[in-house]
Sequence to fold (346 residues):
Amino acid sequence: MLRSNGPHPVTLRYQVYGLSFTSNTPIPGLFEASDASPSPDLIVDFQKPPSWAEAALQLPQVILQTIPACEETHDPAFVLTSLGDGQFFRLYYSDGTCFVVNAATTRLWGTPGEGQSMRDLSTYFLGPVMGYILRRRGFTALHASALCLGGKAIALTGAAGAGKSTTAAALALRGVPVLCEDIAAVEEADGDFAIEAGYPRVCLWPESVEMLMGKRDALPLIAPNWEKCYLPLNGGQARLEIQKQPLGGVYILAPRETENAPRVEEVSGCDVFLELVQNTYMNWLLDRAQRAQEFELLSRLVSRVPVRRIVPHSDPSRVGALCDLILADATRSLAAPLSIGAAAGR
Fold:
C-alpha cells in the first residue's frame, strides 16, 4: 500500500546503478535510499497512465526491434517501438507488460500485463528496462555480476548460462558483498574505471538454489508467475555493497570443461577485447557512432584492468572450487592481502 501523509501520497526515493529516481508506488526488490538526490534522474510512475504517456501512445509508431520469445529462459517476446519522431519509446512484452519512456529517459511509466503483479513489473524494470535506460544514457554495460573484494569490484561476465549469477551467489554466501547482478554499469573517470551498485538481490534458477542451499524452494520466487528465485542481499545470508567501487578485474566465464578445471587462463588483449564486446548488455541498441565509442572505452579498459578467462568444471556442483580459485587469483591480482571478513564488513 502506498504510504501517505494526509491526502497526498509520499514520494519514494531510490538509487540504482548510480541513478536516483522517484516513484509513486513502492518497488518490490528495492530499499528506499535516504541519501538519494532531491533532483532525481528519473521519475517513475506505475499507476494509471499520466497525460504525457497517454499522449505518447497516440503518436505515430515505428517498430525498431523485435526479439522472439525464448523457450529456454521462458522470456516473452519483446518489441521496441519509437513513438513520434523518436520523442518517446515503448517497450512491450508479449505477456502484456508495457513501459513508455521519453527520449531523455527522465520519465517512465509502466503497467503490468493481465494477471501480472507489481512484482512482475519490478522484475522487468530492474532488469532489461533499467538496462535500456542505462544504454540510452550512454553507459557501457557489461552482461555481468560484480562483487566487492578488497575494496575493488571484480566482474564476472560470460555468455547466457555461463554461471555468472550462481557464482556470485556462492561467493555472497561466503560473505563477499555483491555489487550488482546481471548488469554491470561501467563508469570511466580520469582513466580509471568503476562499477555502479545495483539492486539487493541475485536471481537464480531453482537448480542453482538446490545446489547452493540443498532445496529448490529454499529461496523466494521473484514473482508468482516466474520460475526464478532470488537470494536477498539484505544483510542476512548475504549483503549488497551500496557504493560504486573501482574496477579491479574482470573474469570471463568460458564454456565448462571436465579436464583440468576449474582453471584461470591468460588471454591476449585482442581476444579479451572481442570477448568483452560480445558480453556487453543490449549492444543491439547502439548505432555506428555509439558502437565506435564503446569499442574505444573497452580498449582502454583492457589496457588498464586485468582481464582473465576462467574455465569452470562441467559439474556445476564444483562451484566451491571455482569460488576458491576466483578468490585466490583475485587476491594475487589486486596485489594486496584479502580478508573476506573485512571485505564483508564483519
